[in-house]
Structures are given as structure tokens and as C-alpha cells.
Amino acid sequence: MPDKDGKNELHEDAMTGDGRIDMEIIEGLFFAYRDFISDPDAILEKSGFGRAHHRVVHFVNREPGMTVADLLDTLKITKQSLARVLKQLVDSGYIQQVAGPEDRRQRKLYPTRTGRELALALAEPQSRRIARAFEKMAPDDRRTVIRFLAGMQNAKSD
């Protein structure tokens, strides 16, 4: 029995966006992201880690010595959600926390050799996917892709 305001009305036609929404790009991003993370997900699963661990390992390797506060700001997550993931990575020997030289309460994060190896193992299949995609493109297209990705990000608040 249909409701009065039609909120439960069934739609049997495919959603198109009516020219206002770029469904093709949205779906392309869904599928690209699914496949882009599938290889690292399989590697992480063997260690009992997930995508949050991947992000932490990636950014600590990209900026060794970053503080916990820097990492929180980069990842836009809460201390509570980072604490569990970081503890697991430290306890497993992938990351070390070192007290800051001026402020002993400050915690600087560094990858261990094992942490560096994990970061590379996770990035290699992703890099192969990127290289494969660029093989079919013109040399200048890389700059366009970088601009596109930057444009998709939220503006940095300074």
C-alpha cells in the first residue's frame, strides 16, 4: 500500500543524474578505489591490519619524525581511533615512538625497517596500477590527473 507522500514509491528506472550529476565519474572513482586498495587489503589482512593501518604506515614513511598531532591532522581522525591502530603498529614493530627533543611529552613517529618494507609492499602494486593507467595516456596527462585529484580534496584550512 503506497504511503500518502510517496516516499516509499518504487523506482524501476536507473538513476541518471539528469545531467546534474556525473554518474560516470562517480562510478569510475568507486571502481578505481575498490581495485586500487584491493592489493594492499590482501597484504594487510595477513597481519590482521586494515586500511587505517595502511594510512598510518604510509604517512609515517612519507614524513619520518612527524608527531602524533601532525598525523592526526593529516588523517583527520580522532586520538581515540589513532591510538588503537598506532599501538598495534608499535607493538608489532612497524613504527617507533620517540620522545621529542624539546618537549618529552611530544611523540615523534618513525618507521622501522620492517615498517618501511611494509609500506613499500603496499605501495608497489598500487604504483603498478598507476603506471599501467598512464601507459595509455599522453605524457602531460599526469599533471592533469594530479590537478584533478587535488581539486577533489577539501581545501586546506590555514
Automatic annotation (TrEMBL):
Residues 22-154 form the HTH marR-type domain. The keyword Transmembrane does not apply. InterPro entries: HTH_MarR-typ (IPR000835), MarR/SlyA-like (IPR039422), Tscrpt_reg_MarR-type_CS (IPR023187), WH-like_DNA-bd_sf (IPR036388), WH_DNA-bd_sf (IPR036390). It holds the Pfam family MarR_2. Keywords: DNA-binding, Transcription, Transcription regulation. Gene3D superfamilies: Winged helix-like DNA-binding domain superfamily/Winged helix DNA-binding domain. SUPFAM superfamilies: Winged helix' DNA-binding domain (SSF46785). This is MarR family transcriptional regulator. It comes from Shinella sedimenti.
